[in-house]
Amino acid sequence: MPRRILFTLVATMLATSLFAVSAMAQPPAENNGCSQGYQWMEVGVGDADRPTPRIVDDPANGGNGDGIVCARALGDGVFHTFPGRPDTIYKWMDNSRV
C-alpha cells in the first residue's frame, strides 16, 4: 500500500512539473506581446542566444524576465564585417515594453 501511494505521488509530481515547464515556455499571445514588424524570440535560443537579449529581458533593466524578447532586423537584415560576427543585426526590445 505505501508503495502505491509513493508511486502515485511521484508520478503526479513528475507530470505536474512537466506541464508547468511547457506552460511557462508558451507565449502569452500569438505574437508574444511584440508590435507589428517585430518577431518574438526565446532568450537563449537561436539568434537570441546573445548577451543583449538577456540584458533586455532582465527585470533589473526594465524587462519582465519571461524569456521572450522582440527583435527586428535592421537595414536589409544582413551585416557583413569580420568573420565570426553575427550576420543579422537586430533591434531588441522586451515584449512588455513594445
Query: How many strands, what sense, and barrel or not for the largest sheet?
Result: 3 strands, antiparallel
Which structural class do you get from the secondary structure elements?
alpha+beta
Poorly predicted runs of 5 or more residues:
none
Strand order of the largest sheet: 1-2-3
Integer-rounded radius of gyration = 19 Å
The overall pLDDT average reads 74
Number of strands: 3
Report the span from N to C terminus.
55 Å
Q: In percent, how much strand structure appears in the residues?
A: 15-25%
**Treating each run of at least 4 consecutive H or I residues as one helix, how many helices?**
2
Helix and strand sequence: HEHEE
Helix proportion of residues, in percent? Answer: 25-40%
Q: What would you call the shape?
A: elongated
Structure description:
This protein is an alpha+beta fold. The protein has a domain at 28-94. It contains two helices and three strands, in the order H-E-H-E-E. It has a three-stranded antiparallel beta sheet, covered by helices on one side. The chain is elongated. The model has no long low-confidence stretch (mean pLDDT 74).
Task: Please describe the topology of this protein.
Blueprint: H1 2-25, E1 39-42, H2 51-57, E2 68-73, E3 90-94
Antiparallel strand pairs: 1-2, 2-3
Main traits of this protein?
98 residues, alpha+beta, three-stranded antiparallel sheet, 2 helices, 3 strands
